[in-house]
Amino acid sequence: MSLRLGLTALLGALSTAPAVSAALPATAASPVFQDEDLAALVAAERAEADLLRRRGRLADALEITDDLLDEDDEDPLTLAVRGRVRLDRGELGRAERTATEAMELAETDEERRAAGHLLAEVLLRTGRASEVLSVLEELAGGEPFLVPGERPEDAWLLASVRDAVGDRAGAERMARSGAATDPDASDWPGLLARAKCQRRIGMLEAASRTLVAADRASRAGPGEEPDVLVELADLYFESEREVEAPGKRSAGRLYRDALEIHPTHEAALLGQFTLHRFNRRRMSKSPEAILGELLKAVPNSVEGLVARAASDLEDGKLVEVRATLARLDELAPGRRDVRTLHAALAWVEHDRERTAEILEELLRDAPLDGRPEREIGGHLSELYRFAEAVDFLRAAVERDPGDYEAWTLLGECLANSGDEKGGLEALTQANEAARGRRDAYRRNLTLVLERMERAYVTESYGSLSFAWRPDAAEVLRTYLVPYYQKAREELSQRYGFTPGATTISVFRRHKDFSVRSVGFEGFPALGVCFGPVVTAVSPLSRLRGSFSWARTGFHEFSHVVHLGLSNNRCPRWITEGLATWEEIEKNPTWTRNMRRDLLDAKANGDLIPLRELNRAFRGPRILFGYYQGGLLCEMLIDEHGFPPMVALLRAFDLGADLDQAFRSVFDVTPEEVDAAFQEFVDGKLAGLQIEPRWADRTLRRLQLRLSTDPPADEAARAGWAEDWSTVAWGSFQQGRSIDAERALEVLEAAGVDTPRVLFLRGQMAATEGSMALARRTWERAVKAGGREYRSLLALSQLQLGGVAGARDADAAETCLRLAIEAFPGFGEGAGSAEKMLSELLRVNGDLDGAMELMEEWARWNAGDYDVRMDVAAWHLENDRDEAAVRLFEEANEVDMFRRDLHLAWAEALERLGRMDEAAREYGVTLAVPAAFDPDHLTYVGPPGDLPPGVDPANLPAEVVGRIPEELLEPAHLTEEEQLELLDAVARCAAAAGDDERAAEARARADELRSDG
């Protein structure tokens, strides 16, 4: 501001001062010194404008250049700053005109460089790299002003031009020239350009040191520069790829630091977008939200639009890709990345000739540039079209053997299309080509593939192959082989398509499964299908006893069929939705039971639109994406039958986009499907009575439109009361008790005292410790006909415990039964009305009633091993062997490594005369390794290392997986027990007519006796 005022005053003084005699000496008041002062002030103002630009204050920067140009509209340096502001705002045409004007007015090398660099950047951004040198030469009038051997900024500009036309070798030569320069220690722009050149030729450590020096220089001058921070972040991402590097700021932190200085910095947002898309564990913001911030601030950001088109292509949003590419064709049709996206889209749309034509054009002038083929291969990999990607990626590495990114992608695609040995070889090549660049994904996948090669065995059974650890193979083989064979047969018949060879890899460690599947630990799934390759978590993982391997297997093998039928070309939500529907169709107990999440989403207007559903599988709502996809398929099948779903898969195989596929098969638009789904969800939620978890945005929206005065119309008044009740409940849920009280005061003033309000008042009283008031208030709400699941549970506990009144077990039982009616099978185990009531009935001596409730609970929870075993034992005690066998089978689908399970199952089967199955189960009882059976393990380590309350001789399955093997003492079968089991196998096998198995069992028994 002081500079602005000083400049204005000086300009005013110069315009009104009387003429000075030429004979006067050049004193401090002479025109010479006045001109020098004016030039200094103009330069300072110009520098201030550029600083504001680099801080994202584009309007302020533009205002300064406007003022300067009002006084001198032919100043090339000011025009160059103004042009950069225009460029940062995405005003490409205006930036080019301003740069051209500045270039035409430029007289000094400094002015030519400022204008020339700007013009070159505009041409590069708009895909006219081939014009840069000729245009600059013409506008400069033949005067050379770019000196790459002396100025790293010039070297980097020329390297960028070479890269943009596909001349990789020329770009490297120019970058080497810039890397050899020696900018002054205070010249942060020069140091930044030198670092870019060093990074371009692979001198990553040198580039890092130069960037640190640039950062130091900028701090000593204008302050931290976002451009420097982003380049450092990009460098760290390239060199580390999410591998933790001690002593370095993370790439993510550097991007955030840059954005704190310049909130819409294009390169920072693009870097953050790339980082979050690369690493799915980064969930603070979705990649799409980050990209949305950029394109909202700069709608014509060419780099942002390229990223948007690529992202949409990888999410199967072809309509949106076409629209974005049409926009890019207006802004930057000649860019190689834009043309590559056209080639990739053409391939996805089955226009192979167009893809070949574009690639031929791209490679004609740059035969050593493998980036187009690498990019197409990368897009196909993201679409799970791994086999199609392989040919493109092989071509990319043949064209450029040093392209470590293409080698990495090739390794991934080979592994995911069934060639794990070839994948490991490609990853090894990638590691060599990377020249020290680390990559968490590449490292993780390499380690897992090496571990599999070293520690796993592969067994083949017809078209199915299984990879697993040999120490568990006998038990796994007994169940997984026939299970997957049957699933293959059943699903192939339903879809009219039989898939080819398939490999199922079973991982004992969830982190190995996660890394093999997505490259990082922490992937929240139990199985993944790449088409001919399925990865699954073993029943022996740390999650043992809590999930159904059978459900996972059926889900994933349905993908094998879906992806084979559509050649991996259907949107992910459809294959996931169909697989989720298949789960329930196969076994109703395999429900994902996310009704609470569905209720919340519906209440908050948060159901995912069909066009956006694919993206849910890249972010924090991935599990809800599975669930909603399943419900959408259920709705479509209920209305149209199953065959149209097969037709839908075939439509995608033929290259249809979402709109075309749904129009051709169902004659509806995605928006019409969304509208129908809203009604379908209402039906699914009918009868469920629990207060939704309200989102803050829902509350803000309501508060903005709600009046404190109730409407006169009765229906409107009822809606008004419900909305204020929502504000009260939501405020309370988010810990804003004052806002909740105010909302309740508005309702009270209007005479509203509904059960919903009473339930909230009870919750608030309980939170404040006023249990007597809470109990009375909740009882009033129930008496008035109100039902709210969590409140009913809380009230039952007060009544049962005699809190704030007499103990009333009958009332508590009534409350719990009301809660079950309000939300049967509530999915959060600690808050299960069935479990609470079962325990109450058990205490009261009603074991039958308790077990009936637990059996009902099991129907909603496929992964509860313990409940199934308890209920099965109850059935056995009451001579209901058939019911017990059904539960034993379900328990085995959760955890097959339990001797007690197999023995009880075998005995029940034998009583039922199912001798072949009984022989199998007696045999498995023998085969279960004692070291894997938590029912027969004793902890022998330090007592204090066990979780509180855990009996060392009775270890829960989930605890066993976290204890080192040397601290566990297994109880092996005695010789007598082994002989009894072998005799049982022989007996049942003979009764079933399996003489070979019976003879084998007798031989083993004889051998055991002779050894003894």
Question: What would your notes on this structure say?
Answer:
- The protein is mostly helical and 1012 residues long.
- Helices cover 66% and strands 3% of the residues.
- It has 49 helices and 7 strands.
- The protein has a 5-stranded mixed beta sheet with strand order 1-2-3-5-4. It has a two-stranded antiparallel sheet with strand order 6-7.
- A hairpin with a 3-residue loop joins strand 4 and strand 5 (533-537).
The helicity comes to 55-70%
The gyration radius over C-alpha positions equals 35 Å
Biggest sheet overview: 5 strands, mixed
Q: What's the count of strands?
A: 7
Task: Report the principal-axis shape.
Answer: globular
- The secondary structure category is mainly alpha
Q: What is the first-to-last residue Cα distance?
A: 99 Å
- Please indicate the percent range of residues in DSSP E strands (runs of 2 or more): under 5%
Q: Count of helical segments? A: 49
Q: What's the mean pLDDT score?
A: 91
Note poorly predicted spans. 1-29
